[in-house]
Fold this sequence. Notes:
This protein has 151 residues and is mainly alpha-helical. Helix content is 77%, strand content 0%. It has one domain (5-143). It has seven helices and no strands. Helix 1 (5-14) packs antiparallel against helix 2 (21-37) and helix 4 (60-86) packs antiparallel against helix 5 (89-104).
Amino acid sequence: MRSGGFRERLEVAVGWRTGEVADFAPAMLTLGAFDRGARRRSSGQDLLSLGAAFADLADAAVLERAEGACALLSLLTADESAAWSSGDLRGARELRVHEDQELRGEAGDVLQQACAAILGRAPRPPYVALVQLCQLWVGKERTGSSIADTS
Length: 151
């Protein structure tokens, strides 16, 4: 986050969402201010400050459930990517359907609840931006079109 590389990768990741990129702009600007300000802070100062703030984000149980949902979704997306790369189109589509079901189901619910809990505690700016990005991304994935849509 300090170098700006994280924010740049996020910008690329949302860049394909034609007409929706502007929705991500406020959080991206916050991350940009954080990485530009890193020139005036040591990494130790950031680690100490953000580490202390992390404990106040939400109850441990909420964070643990969100971590589990993220781990599941990360595994599914990695497996989907590997399936597409290996030419396993059927497997890739099945994994995408599973991801979509998880996002529209319990994993999405858990992430949205965690985001709301964290924002309710008014965390430090980089955490606010990261949570807003998560909330926005999950919300768009849950309500947007997908190859998993069968209707």
